[in-house]
Amino acid sequence: MVDQVPKTSRGWILTGGLVAAILLILAKLIYLQVFQYKYYFQMSEENRIRVLPRSAMRGKIVDREGRLLASDRPAYTVSIIPSEVSKIDYLAGELAPLLEMDEKAIVRKVADRRTRKYEPVAIRRDLSFPAVCIIEESSELFPGVVYQLDQTRTYYYGKSLCHLIGYTGEVDEREAKDQQFRTGSIIGRAGVERQYDQSLRGIDGVDYLEVSATGRIIGPLEDRPSKDPLMGDELALTIDMDLQMAADSCFGDTLSGAAIFLDPKTGEILALVSKPTFDPNLFAGFVSRSEYQSLAGDERLPLFDRTIRGTYPPGSTAKILTAGAALEEGLITTETHFGPCRGGMQFGNRFFKCWDKRGHGSLGLLAALEQSCDVYFYQLGLKLGLEKWSKYARACGFDQTTGLDIPGEKIGHAPDEKWYEKTYGKYNWNKSVMLNLGIGQGEFLVTPIELAQFYAGVVNHGVVMKPHVIRYLRTPKGETNYYHAEIARGLPFSEETLEILKEGLYRVVQSGTAVRSRIPEVTMGGKTGTAQNPHGEDHSWFVGYAPALDPQILGCVIVENAGHGSTVAAPFVKAVFVKFFQKKGIIKMPPPPLLPLVSAGNGVNSAAN
Ligand SMILES: [Zn+2]
Asked: Over the stretch 455-508, which tens digit does the pLDDT of each residue have?
């Protein structure tokens, strides 16, 4: 057989080389046409399309009587599209005076956007109309700058609700990566704005616009219809603004502390105040770095929500816990008397003082609560012992959050033997710690909301409700979902024990340490507290409720560095209770102030003369 195939190696190389070259070209073509198609298509699309997100209107927030607390109002937002700007420093210089912003802040905002350069970066929200007109009229001076009718969050009661409602902020690049949000869109950052963000936020829409090579908008894109944004849900709170304002105004501008008013039967929060405050409207437009730093660096800590994050020794308000535990354990009856109070008592080599150095003599439980005698409770604490005390403190909820629907709640501290051993070593502490714990001092710390919840359980037959500020959520279509009250836990106290505790609390206001805060029209119960504070003046506490037999409202107030509970915190609670029962018609409103006489200069009355 004759073989026809060329045998020279040269021929083989030539053929092989040709085939390889053809294959290479083919591969490159396939790569460009198929794999890179999306990329090039996007490039050409982006030259003629501008994608402008349209933010959804955030749902409004109202109080329990429908009063508007927060809503979005129309406002202009100016943005920069990074891909359309060649000299950002120059542009920032031109824009800065118009936007009343720092040049560097503009550059930084654009630089922060490392990816998605074709999406607008919001630079300044809530811009004045004249400034918008200037941008519109000289658009060639501001390449890549766009403005949109958007919205800005407005808080109508500003400072008086700042911690409770919180505020919103822009999603940054890092957050956008982790979550489904768009960079620059608005989310709730604190308070109920954050807690209920999902419902309040709504769903953003989008506009597709055709633009010329110079950036002029030609019109909406025909083949891609715009999507309208969907408004967020309305959030109704359980807050009563009349009570909120009354509680807030007690503190004035100088005092720091917290005030909580709630319905002990349902856990509905009626007022929630942390002082000092800040204006949440600052965060709604834009907040400059220096403004934020001055807030964050303020030594009075206005950003700190004391109602849920402040931990304080409860002082004498904790005597109810010591008494309840001892009664429940059968260690005392109301008739049990201890050694008499002579202004204090000696224990080991230390003299433990009573708040009243004149001494209270020998008292039973009810009188000891009424007079808040420390010497009685030093002895009761010792009798109870640390193991039982910590067991009851924990069962009463002092080692857990209350479940309030505001993010960031902290837990106080109810120490036990293990904790002391770990902290001080096995032999470096002794049972004298119970003297302090029994009167709410030492290592025992509570948050105001924990203490309020505990007392609400005491006056609600031992049933502890979950505190909450949400009343309902309502969709734009009008479907309303009411929140249903939830039981958090039961107190470890029998009905008999609770009756004795409530009798003691009633006497505190009737004839004891809080007698000056009595309200003639309404019976009241409560407990004062004066918590020693190693950093300065004592903290002033009062927890009260009314009417004593069927409580409709409970108030828990702490005023930092203000001295005795009876002289500062108790009158605050009284002031809010008066407002509450005035609204119910139980306390008569004072007559309106007399109008000043105006001289009749209009001649109306002249006919009578
Ligand atoms: Zn005493």
From this structure: 999 999 999 999 999 999 999 999 999 999 999 999 999 999 999 999 999 999
Predicted TM-score of the model (pTM): 0.85
Among 316, 390, 517, 566, the one annotated catalytic: 316
Higher pLDDT, 139 or 497: 497
Per-residue pLDDT band for 603 (boundaries 50, 70, 90) equals: very low
How far apart are the CA of 439 and the centre of ligand 1, in A?
12
Residues 6+ apart with CB under 8 A from 17: none
**CA distances for 609 relative to 36, 599, 601, 606, angstroms:** 97, 15, 14, 6
> What count of residues does the chain have?
609
Number of Cβ within 10 Å of residue 231's Cβ equals 18
What lies within 8 Å, CB to CB, of 486 at 6+ separation is 267, 403, 465, 466, 468
Exposed, middle or buried, 515 (CB in 10 Å: 0-12/13-18/19+)?
middle
Distance 359 CA to ligand 1 centre (A): 5
Alpha helices in 240-353 (DSSP H): 241-251, 281-284, 289-296, 306-309, 319-328
Structure tokens at 528: 């004062």
Calculate how far, in angstroms, residue 345's C-alpha sits from the geometric centre of ligand 1. 9
Pairing of strands 480-482, 487-490: unpaired
Which domains, ranges and CATH numbers included, belong to the chain? 49-211+218-237 (3.90.1310.10), 241-285+305-583 (3.40.710.10)
User: What's the gap in Å between 313 CA and the centre of ligand 1?
Assistant: 19
> pLDDT for 507-521, tens place per residue?
999 999 999 999 999
User: Is 316 in the active site?
Assistant: yes
